[in-house]
From TrEMBL:
Domain Peptidase S26: 17-97, 104-146
Organism: Tyrannus savana
Name used for this protein in its record: Mitochondrial inner membrane protease subunit
Pfam annotation, one family: Peptidase_S26
Encoding gene, per UniProt annotation: Immp1l
EC class (word): hydrolase
GO cellular component term of the entry, any: mitochondrial inner membrane peptidase complex
Length: 166
């Protein structure tokens, strides 16, 4: 009887480890569901919106200008942030705030991206902490799941004029 119970416990533990590894790989390499908080991506993503973030793009270096990404915060590595990619390595970006009279520009260094929130007046982004290493990107948001009336692919940036083609 003890042997039978021990056998069942070991099988249960084995299945738990197997399914745990499968779940870890799915969330690490395929993607997952993310609840966004904060006003920095309004109007595209509102506070408490639920989105799907896929992780394959970052592994295959397929992140493009205009994509919305989940990134480890450069200021607090324990938290993630949600921002739009404005520039990739080698791109010329506007580094000043929209309200600044004189505009300043810079080039994104190799291995980095320039990130900004869609709500430029209420976003802590690359204008504050500079270019972000590509390795901090966790995934690319591709679909809004909640609220249901907004279900679908994400809309284009309301700040498309900040993308420079130089």
């Amino acid at each position: 009887m003890l042997r039978d119970a021990l056998g069942r416990a070991c099988r249960f533990l084995g299945y738990t480890v197997q399914y745990g590894c499968i779940a870890h790989c799915a969330f690490e390499y395929l993607g997952g569901i993310v609840v966004c908080s904060g006003p920095s991506m309004e109007p595209t993503i509102q506070n408490s919106d639920i989105v799907f973030s896929e992780n394959l793009s970052r592994h295959f270096y397929c992140i493009r200008k205009g994509d919305i990404v989940i990134v480890k915060s450069p200021n607090d590595p324990k938290s993630n942030i949600c921002k739009r990619v404005i520039g990739l390595e080698g791109d010329k970006v506007c580094t000043s705030n929209p309200s600044d009279f004189l505009k300043s520009h810079s080039y994104v260094p190799k291995g980095h991206v320039w990130l900004e929130g869609d709500n430029l007046r209420n976003s802590t982004d690359s204008r504050c902490y500079g270019p972000v290493p590509y390795g901090l990107i966790r995934g690319r948001i591709c679909l809004k799941l909640w609220p249901l009336n907004d279900f679908g692919f994400l809309r284009a940036s309301p700040n498309g004029h900040r993308f420079l083609d130089d």
